[in-house]
Write a structure and sequence with these properties.
By secondary structure, the protein is an all-alpha fold. It has four helices and no strands. It has a domain of 36 residues.
């Protein structure tokens, strides 16, 4: 059984929902349901952020300083 939920939205948000609904051929209610289901889905971080893997390019730093420090303090 479905129930009705009423929300208050500013005009720019409503217009964005209308545009998305029109572009996908769905009703505004369907778009809002999909957005809510995605937001409330209990997915692990790997699934939610997996598309970002490998995107961050950081300069390689030499590990020599770290290795030297480990040897100095004899950390293992």
């Amino acid at each position: 059984m479905s129930t009705t939920i009423t929300i208050r939205a500013e005009e720019p948000l409503r217009e964005a929902l209308d545009k998305k609904a029109a572009a996908t051929g769905k009703t505004v209610s369907e778009v809002v349901r999909e957005i809510l289901e995605a937001a409330l889905a209990d997915k692990p971080l790997q699934v939610r952020a997996g598309h970002l893997k490998g995107r961050l390019r950081l300069p390689r730093r030499s590990s020599e300083a770290w290795a030297r420090r480990l040897r100095q303090h004899n950390w293992r």
